[in-house]
Amino acid sequence: MATITFVKKDLVKESGLSKPEDTIPKIGMEVERDADGDITVDITPNRSDMLDIVGLARQLALHEGVRKPRSYEVSGDSGISISVGKNVGRVRPDIAGIVVKDVSFTEASLKYLINFSEKIGGTLGRNRKKLAMGIHDLSAIEGNLVYDAAYDGSITPLGESEDMKFEDVIKENRKGIAYANTIAAEMGSRQLYPFLRDSATTISLIPITNSEKTKVTVKTKSLFIDFTGTDSETVSKAADMFACSFIDAGAKVYSVKVVSANGASGEYPKLDRRIIKIKASGFYGVLGYKANDADIKRLAVRSGYLVLEEAKNLVSVAVPPYRYDVFNEQDVYEDLVFAYGYDSVKSRPVSSVNAGSETAFTLFADKLTEIMLGLGYTEAYNNYLTNENAEFEMMGKEPEMEKVVNIRYSKTENISIMRSSILPSLINNLRDSASEQMPYRMFEIGDAFSVAGGKAEERKALAFVSEHSKAD
Amino acid sequence: MHEYESKLLSFLKDKGSADVESICEGTGLGRDAVLWASESLKSKGGVEIAIDYGAEIEISPEALGYADGFPEQALLSELAKGPKDLKGNINGIALAWVKRNGWADIKDGKLQITEKGRKAIGSDYDQKSVLGVLLSKTGRGADNIAYVGNAEMEKIRNTAKELEHRKLVQIKPKSKISLISITDIGIEMLSGEKAGNWIGQLTRDIIKSRIWTDSGFRPYDVEAPVADAYPARRHPMKEFMELVRRMWVSQGFIETAGPMIESSFWNFDALFSPQDHPTREMQDTFFLSNPDIFGIAEKELLKSVARMHKKGWKSWNDEISFQPVLRTHTTSVSAHNIREYGNSSELEYPIKLFSIGKVFRNESIDYKHLAELHQLDGIIIGKGLGVADLKGTLEQFYKGLGFKVKFKPSYFPFVEPGLEASYYDEEHGDWIELCGGGIIRKEITKALGTDMRVIAWGAGLDRLMFKYLGISSLSELYKNDIGWLRRRKPLRL
Fold first, then answer.
1. Which of A411, A418, A440 minimises the CB distance to B482?
2. Which of A300, B79, B374, B381 is close enough to A305 for a disulfide, judged by CB 3.0 to 4.6 Å?
3. Considering CB atoms only, which of A331, A359, A378 is closest to B482?
4. Tell me, what's the pLDDT at B221?
5. A285, B479: Cβ pair inside 8 Å?
6. Is B449 inside a domain boundary?
7. Quick check: B232 and A379 CB within 8 A?
8. Which residue in chain A has the smallest CA separation from B237?
9. Cβ neighbour number for residue B100 with a 10 Å cutoff
10. Domain A274-344 adopts which CATH fold?
11. ipTM score of the complex?
12. In chain A, which residue's Cα lies nearest the Cα of B442?
């Protein structure tokens, strides 16, 4: 999950709701923190469109019925085209672009936009590898654009005053160091750098940094945004998401043409609407009963779907272009359930037709436990993750490492293997129990792990220890 | 009078008084027997017991190395030959103590002996002397514990404290019987009584033969201290898991189990988690280097899950699927269950299943994060199941644990729609998450080979122990200190 922080009064203004924090849980998100005038929200990974204040406010307002769904269209052709070169296809094949005009930024709204693109690149974009975007001042761009990759080149990165070679950017620039891995060449091949150029200069070393030349400030009135990555659908959807946000914020979006190396061309943003037919009976099926008080048309509207046509118990809805997680009617029903509200759903425990039962091992272990308790042994329960020292060295045993289940990487220092027997844990417990009244009697029933013939084996085991003056 | 008592009194009759050790030696009784007899006689006025409030001093292994001389003494004798450069190789402990003792000063970056230091050479060093005294008093065992009586302790207290400050010894107050003396009543008891006539322990023969009518019973002190008795107990987490298990079984659920070492296929892929999803990274999941591959034998199943991924996420790689992991949730068991019970001819639908077990997370461990946790997972497989059934089932279960739950929308990649159940915690004034659930995606049930509807939920168990057991840190639970296990609170549901 990604968390994002907004100034609360900005969210109030944007959504038109006086208490947006009460609606946030109803749309499936979580308020992580609500203090000092800020509100931090956990956004689930299926709804990256809400990582933007405009997108979150939109959904909140729709849910509460203070806003109605709308259609999203471009205002025209920007006249800008991007030609895709041959080299880039090998490393980062996909690009889309949009042009936005009549933008009016405040310090806050610019910050939200930059946060939105950072968060999308981090989550949906898998740390910019699958998707990243660059936001440029349109007025600084000269002529048409070329998207390609080269073995060398140079750029004046954002925040710098001098031209730098690409190879120096990934070694010295802060963003370069952070994202060099996204374009790292495979073993044995030379490093290729994806870039975007206008007719004069390199405006972006992708997906690392834009150029200082096209830097966006509060005064910027029009934007060009590039979306690049390794999955064409994600790239195109991201363009839609941003376009919808700008349209909702009152700006105008213009299309950008992309001409690929083989001559095929496409226009972005696509802003396609998927049309899905939903039925009242399908919705009832998800609830598990016929809910007479549920009006699927009204619920669809409150989820943000445009209702196109309706017959009795059958409604045709348009999925808004900012959604990339809705493919079929099941996906729509999920939104309808959220709009209907879990509080409204009936509660009905499932009756039993089979007898409940425990596993044979549970029953056996219960018997053993009863016997051990009867003998005066107290039950211990140790961790299954351990290390070579505790498992072998302390026991004076030579490890046979090929038989030991090994962890590849652990954040915790004293975890490296799975235990192969229970006894070392119990011996360790005796040591930690010093200065208690004797006798010490402990047992544990649990699992022990090993590898045989390349396969993991899980074994159930019982171990016990007894320490006192007469123990022999 | 008990046999031990009469032996003790007879011994003391000649001596007047003696310490415990010589009484043991003289009577042939064990230490416990002597202590018991003297306590018993004391309550009858037959003996007087003098107690010495001294100290028990444990000598550390480091101190044992100092028996022949302290490091500061060694440094002092070197300094006697001339000043030492501070940059040179000087033992830090020795340096600190020669300065503290006023034996040396630092001048111009050099350590120089003082007048006091010169005097100290060749004379006794109090710390060494006291250590010597303590060593002479240690018992036979290897535990290096010396008992120092009150009078002597007064003499050496300051120096002993210094040693304790240096962590060379550990001082604990300890009282000890110093002397047991016979009283006039004791002498009378001895002459007046025919020893051995009182009945100390009631047996079935004594009752049958009515011997007690002649001899009478030895009086006993109901307030005399006895050793604590601890019953053997279950581990609290196991006890809790047992309770949860019983609740599900009582509601008609069948318990199931699955492997902890799992393929990525069952832990992630079968549950529609995209192969490039961030939670699948090494930062969050324990991947294994031995074994390093976990193949899937059912090729058809592999193919149908691959198909689901290619359609939904546009990516698939068998090798990623075969990476072995420690399961990150018990939902992997539910995935196996959907496969196994999705087309059952033996059981009637709806089939209700659950599992409880360990799960593993590659976490940085602190008071509320552990690398090993416990989860329960439940599913119901059947026709016509919906959100209402899920709500009802969870409400019923949590009611049994004493929670009134509320539901809100949530997202998990394997369910649609998803929900989260939480309860209002009065103590924190906040809603606390109890479990997540939903209807298993159609893509998943189809890929796992069933047309049935599956409702599913999963819950963490460990954090409930904060509430039920009144602990402040989760790691306390798995230390297995026997004292903690003996005295822990009962589960408070």
1. A440
2. A300
3. A378
4. 73
5. no
6. yes
7. yes
8. A381
9. 10
10. Phenylalanyl-tRNA Synthetase; Chain B, domain 1 (3.30.56)
11. 0.91
12. A330
